[in-house]
Amino acid sequence: MTVRTRFAPSPTGSLHVGGARTAIFNWLFARHAGGQFILRVEDTDRERSTEESILEITDAMEWLGLDWDEGPFRQSERLEIYQKHANLLLDSGHAYKCYVTPEELDEKRKEAQSRGDVLHYKREWAKLNEGPDVPYVIRLQTPDEGTIEVQDKLRGTVTFDATEVDDFIILKRDGFPTYNFAVVVDDATMNITHVIRGDDHLINTPRQVLIYKSLNYEVPTLAHVSMILGSDNKRLSKRHGATSVVAYKDRGYLPEAIINFLSRLGWSYGDQEIFSKEELIEKFTLDNVGKSAAVFNEEKLEWLNSHYIKNDPPEKIAELVIPLLKENGLEVELDEKLIKIIKELSQRAKTLLDIRDSINYFYASEIEFEEKAKNKFLKSEIKPVLQDIVDKLSNLSDFNMDEMHKVFDQVMEERELKLGKIAQPVRVALTGGTVSPGIFEVMDILGKDEVIARLNNAISVIPNE
RNA sequence: GUCCCCAUCGUCUAGCCUGGCCCAGGACAUCGGCCUUUCACGCCGAAAACAGGGGUUCAAAUCCCCUUGGGGACGCCA
Question: Annotated catalytic residue: which of A84, A213, A238, A406?
């Protein structure tokens, strides 16, 4: 039997990192097994589900490179299937109609609560209000005693007492299925073989097992992965800052960094930290998935991101940076100059935005000097030195790094200055600030004319003694 | 409150299933050093954990129990 996994988000917001991790695990598991990965949208909550959100989720998945083989299916388009299954259960006596109103139920629930209890509804008020035109829900008739066992691939057998499970609703009065029912009907009819999902669903699983059994469907292999927590050990939420995948995209993160990072949250392969997508597919198995919750560690994500920025081909990084520059009003082409710049800047960037924010002086027609840098390094005594450098550089017929080195060596020797004394003023002259790639690299990128122009410009702004 | 899950450095984790090779390994972050024309990168090094208590055993991070701690769930939400 071919492996079929699924990712089933509810479209009530954009894809957050927790959901992305679940999607990644399912996707990796399917790809590893050469099976299929299905996308299903669980939009039975009519109040909160939006089309926009579906688009946001699929966009994020595409950006991450999580391709799906079927779907996105919408549960809202499968109502007949759920109703048919509900009727099946009605006919077989596994389910019954219940006429209690939500308000009445609320009251009962409050009563129970005031007794310090939880309402465990076992069909006692089903016939209350019964009548031909009275709206009703359909509930599953659950066992009154005994236990319900859940087989979990990660946690073994988990046993629940039947009294813990009440006669839950499978079909709401609006004819929509509830989550537990829709999930089971879908997973069964879509032939899902492996359900990998968050830990928070483990508590739902006895209910789902009951539905599978009542419907005579086989229970798929279940694996409940533990959740991702914020730095305060609470379930990751908006409170913790950026939690959506697009937020990270917008902050200059690379999809491979996110995939790599999220894969390693709850899964590991010995001591290895860096995984390409292909490697993940090859190495991912449920055996190496851990059971304890993992804290989302932004610093490690950042480290991975900087790793990929450093090690990805500069052409690729350049292509990602170009649109960011455009947003800032800087139109640049993917040429040799940009590649050289990226090679340098990617060494010191943690995100694509770091590159975007430190690239300006390479393209500026006029250098803006940082006040502090100018005051510290562009002083009158350096003026003749800069002039000397301009003269010597002007004479170079071949403006390459070797020749530049020779020029600087010569100046250093003649004037008995250390490179540091010369390099910083030159850096300020060329870039306007004190932080940049190596000075010779910068000169190489700018080219002879621009270097000389900028040095001359700096000389002109230095006051005479 | 009830039920369910979980428990190794601050964080992600290896080791646990199949006890001894573990006075516990790697990575991020931190701190120190080296490199150096700035900032980074890189390299070297340091500090840092088996939650506690009982068992079982010649031997326990590894198996069992209890306690504690953390998380999750208790909806006509998903």
Answer: A238
